UniProtKB/TrEMBL annotation:
It comes from the Eukaryota. Keywords: Repeat. The keyword Transit peptide does not apply. Residues 15-122 form the Disease resistance R13L4/SHOC-2-like LRR domain. It comes from Salix purpurea. SUPFAM superfamilies: L domain-like (SSF52058). This is DISEASE RESISTANCE PROTEIN RP. The keyword Ligase does not apply. Coiled coil: none annotated.
Length: 171
């Protein structure tokens, strides 16, 4: 897949076979979405090396690990990052010189995320932060920091009704 130099947008759903891991993605990618990829190893070090990546969306169960760490000077062109339903994620580390152009960060239903090393540095470029169904302690910590004053922060709490169960008595 890395030989396909004309590919700029990619949406992958489902487990990635070993021969098509994140290290095999084309350097020309500008937008990448992963869903239900079930990656066991932190994808951020490799994804951060994609020089043209503007939009990264890691959707439900795309990553199964507890920690994500961006590398120094990683994600040089990234403007939008969405982390949705990474159920096991507890800690996300962002070095000072990573994601220098990030404008929009949306984190949704990462209910175990507690540690956010280096996030305060993101506030210098970030314009919008959207937190949906996130731990109250994390939201409170972000809201009380002065460096976030220039960032538009939206906090959503969505409650879902359980899906109706089929009536097995009639079957």
């Amino acid at each position: 897949m890395s030989d396909n130099q004309s590919l700029s947008e990619l949406y992958l759903t489902g487990s990635l076979p070993p021969e098509i891991g994140v290290t095999q993605l084309p350097q020309t990618l500008k937008m990448l979405s992963l869903a239900v990829s079930k990656l066991e190893h932190d994808p951020m070090p490799d994804l951060g090396k994609l020089p043209n990546l503007n939009i990264l969306r890691l959707f439900a169960r795309s990553y199964l690990g507890k920690e994500m760490t961006c590398q120094s000077k990683g994600f040089p062109a990234l403007r939008v990052l969405k982390l949705w339903m990474l159920e096991e994620l507890e800690k996300w580390t962002v070095p000072e010189d990573s994601m220098p152009l990030l404008r929009e960060l949306e984190i949704r239903c990462c209910e175990n995320l507690r540690e956010t090393d280096g996030w305060q540095r993101l506030s210098s470029s970030l314009k919008e932060l959207i937190l949906t169904n996130m731990p109250p302690t994390l939201v409170k910590d972000i809201n009380k920091r002065e460096e976030w004053d220039k960032v538009r922060i939206t906090v959503n709490i969505w409650e879902f009704d359980p899906l109706p169960q089929p009536d097995t008595a009639k079957a």
